[in-house]
Amino acid sequence: MGGIYGTKYMEGISQQLPTPLKAGTAYQVSFDLAAPAKYDTLIMCGGSMAIYGSNKPDEQQELLWSSGPFSHEEWKRYVAVLKPTKDYNYIVLMPNLPGTCAGSRYTACLIDNLSPALTVIPDVSFRVQPTCSGKSTGNIKVIVNGGKPPFTFQWSHNNALVQDSIGNLSAGDYEVTVTSASGTSTKSMVRVNEYVVNVTTTLTPPSCYGNKNGIIEVKATDGLSPYKYSRDNGIQFQDHPVFEKLKAGNYSFLVNDRVGCEARSQAILSQPAPLEVEKVNVKDVSCSDTRDGRIQLNISGGTQPYSFSIDQVTWQTDNSFGQLDAGNYRLLIKDQHNCLTETISTIKRNIRECAVFVPTAFSPNGDGQNDLFRAKVHDDVHDYRLDVFTRWGQTVFSTNSPDGAWDGLFKGQQLPTATYVWVLLYTDSKQQARKQTGTVMLIR
Question: Are the beta carbons of 13 and 94 closer than 8 angstroms?
Answer without folding.
Answer: yes
